[in-house]
C-alpha cells in the first residue's frame, strides 16, 4: 500500500514510517504537491524533530509561512533551533514583520542575537548568506586533538570537509581539509600541514562576486572574514547554487524587458505580473515613436517607390535579431567573467568581422531572392541589400558595445538586451534604408 492510500485510510502512523524513509527534499515535495494543507500539517507534525527542520528548509516560502502560523510556539522554537543559521536567516528575510517577531520571541537569546546580526547585513552580501556552522581549529593542535574535536562538535556543523585555523583573536590563519587530517600522522601539528595560501571573501562582497569566486577556484566552501580578517562565517556550495539560479533568473527577466521578481510564476498574481512588465513595455512603446518619426520624414520616398515599404519588416527583424545575438553572447560573457571592460575594443573588432561575413552572406542571398525570383527592379534590389548589409553590421556593433557600456556605467548589462537593442536598431536600420533609397534612386 503506497503512502497516499495509507493517508486516505487514516493510517497516519504507518504513512509516517514510509515517509521518513524518503529523502528530505522528496518529503517536502510530497507534502506540498501530493496532499492538501490540513493533511500536510498532520504529517509534518509527525516527523522526527531533526527531520522536520530539514524538510521545512526545502519548502516554499508560502508553505513555511502557513506552517509557522499554524503550529505552537514550542514547535516553532524546535524548528528554528534545528535549522542551520543561514537557513533560519533566509526564512526570516522572507517573512512579514509580525511573523519574524513571533519566531524570534521563541528562540534562545544567543541564537536570536546571531540571527539579528545576520539580518543587519546588506541584502545579497556575503554576510547575509554565510553560515557560522563550521569547524575552527588552532594551529598548535595535533592531528589527533583536531580529529577528537571534530568528532565532538562536527555533528552540528554544516560541513567538516574543510576546517579553518584561527588564532586567539579569531583571525584566519589557514585552512585544512579533512582528507589531510585523516591521511597524516596523528602527532603532526596543524600548523605544519595547513594551507596558508587560501581564497577568502569579505562580509560586504556582493553575492554575484562570491559565486564567480567559487566558479573560478572550483571550491565547495569559502571563509568569510570581516575588515580585521577575523573569521565570521563560511559560504557553502549549496548556497552558491541557489545564488546562480537566482542571478540567472534575474538576468533572463531583465533581458526580456521585465522588472525582476523572486516569486514563482504560478504563485504570482496577474496584477503583479502585469506591473513588472508594463513599465518596460511603456518605455519601449514610447521609444518606438522614433521609428514612426523616421518613416514620416521619408514619406515622399515611400510614395515615390511604394515597394520599399514591403521590405521594412524584413530589415527591422533581421537587424533586431542580429543585435540580439551579439548582446546575448556579450552579456553572458560578462556574467561569466569572460569579458571585462578593458575588452571592449576586442569585442568591437570581433563583432565587426562577424558582421561583415554575416551581412555579406544575407545581402547576397537576399539579392538573388528579390531580383531573380520576385523580379524587383535592379536599383531597388541593390538598395534593399546594401541597407541589409549595413543594418547587420551596425546591429552587431551596437549589440556588442551596449552591454559593456552599461557595465562601465555600473548598470546591469542584462538591461541592454533584445527589446532595447531592437528598438535602437530599428531606428538605425530605417535611417540607413531611406537615406540609401533617396541617394541611389534619386528620389
TrEMBL record:
Annotated Gene3D superfamilies: CBS-domain, MgtE N-terminal domain-like, SLC41 divalent cation transporters, integral membrane domain
Matches recorded under InterPro entries: CBS_dom (IPR000644), CBS_dom_sf (IPR046342), Mg_transptr_MgtE_intracell_dom (IPR006668), MgtE_N_sf (IPR038076), MgtE_transporter (IPR006669), SLC41_membr_dom (IPR006667), SLC41_membr_dom_sf (IPR036739)
Membrane topology: Multi-pass membrane protein
Subcellular location(s) per record: Cell membrane; Membrane
Function statement: Acts as a magnesium transporter.
Quaternary data: Homodimer.
Annotated protein name in UniProt: Magnesium transporter MgtE
Primary gene name: mgtE
Amino acid at each position: 500500500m503506497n503512502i497516499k492510500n495509507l493517508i486516505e485510510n487514516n493510517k497516519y502512523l504507518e504513512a509516517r514510517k514510509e515517509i521518513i524513509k524518503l529523502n528530505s527534499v522528496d518529503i517536502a515535495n510530497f507534502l506540498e504537491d501530493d496532499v492538501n494543507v490540513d493533511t500536510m500539517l498532520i504529517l509534518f507534525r509527525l516527523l522526527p524533530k531533526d527531520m522536520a527542520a530539514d524538510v521545512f528548509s526545502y519548502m516554499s516560502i508560502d508553505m513555511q509561512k502557513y506552517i509557522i502560523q499554524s503550529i505552537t510556539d514550542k514547535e516553532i522554537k524546535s524548528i528554528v533551533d534545528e535549522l542551520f543559521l543561514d537557513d533560519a536567516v533566509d526564512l526570516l528575510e522572507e517573512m512579514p514583520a509580525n511573523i519574524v517577531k513571533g519566531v524570534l520571541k521563541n528562540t534562545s537569546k544567543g541564537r536570536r542575537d546571531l540571527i539579528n546580526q545576520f539580518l543587519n547585513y546588506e541584502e545579497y552580501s556575503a554576510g547575509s548568506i554565510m553560515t557560522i556552522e563550521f569547524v575552527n581549529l588552532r594551529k598548535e593542535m595535533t592531528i589527533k586533538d583536531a580529529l577528537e574535536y571534530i568528532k565532538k562538535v562536527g555533528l552540528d556543523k554544516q560541513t567538516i570537509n574543510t576546517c579553518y585555523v584561527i588564532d586567539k583573536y579569531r583571525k584566519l590563519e589557514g585552512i585544512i581539509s579533512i582528507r589531510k587530517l585523516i591521511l597524516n600522522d596523528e602527532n603532526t601539528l596543524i600548523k605544519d600541514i595547513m594551507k596558508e595560501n587560501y581564497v577568502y571573501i569579505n562580509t560586504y562582497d556582493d553575492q554575484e562576486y562570491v559565486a564567480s569566486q567559487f566558479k573560478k577556484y572550483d571550491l565547495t566552501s569559502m571563509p568569510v572574514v570581516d575588515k580585521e580578517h577575523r573569521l565570521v562565517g563560511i559560504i557553502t556550495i549549496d548556497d552558491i547554487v541557489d545564488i546562480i539560479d537566482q542571478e540567472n533568473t534575474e538576468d533572463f527577466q531583465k533581458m526580456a524587458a521585465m522588472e525582476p521578481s523572486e516569486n514563482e510564476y504560478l504563485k504570482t498574481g496577474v496584477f503583479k505580473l502585469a506591473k513588472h512588465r508594463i513599465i518596460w513595455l511603456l518605455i519601449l512603446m514610447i521609444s518606438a515613436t522614433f521609428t514612426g518619426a523616421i518613416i514620416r520624414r521619408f514619406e515622399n520616398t515611400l510614395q515615390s517607390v511604394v515597394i520599399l515599404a514591403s521590405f521594412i519588416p524584413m530589415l527591422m527583424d533581421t537587424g533586431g535579431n542580429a543585435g540580439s545575438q551579439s548582446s546575448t553572447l556579450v552579456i553572458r560573457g560578462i556574467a561569466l567573467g569572460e569579458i571585462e571592460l578593458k575588452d571592449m575594443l576586442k569585442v568591437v573588432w570581433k563583432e565587426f568581422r562577424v558582421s561583415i561575413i554575416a551581412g555579406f552572406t544575407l545581402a547576397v542571398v537576399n539579392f538573388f531572392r528579390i531580383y531573380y525570383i520576385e523580379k524587383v527592379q535592379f536599383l531597388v534590389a541593390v538598395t534593399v541589400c546594401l541597407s541589409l548589409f549595413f543594418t547587420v553590421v551596425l546591429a552587431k556593433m551596437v549589440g556588442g558595445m551596449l552591454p559593456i557600456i552599461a557595465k562601465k556605467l555600473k548598470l546591469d548589462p542584462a538591461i541592454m538586451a533584445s527589446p532595447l537593442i531592437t528598438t535602437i536598431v530599428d531606428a538605425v536600420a530605417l535611417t540607413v534604408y531611406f537615406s540609401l533609397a533617396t541617394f541611389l534612386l534619386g528620389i
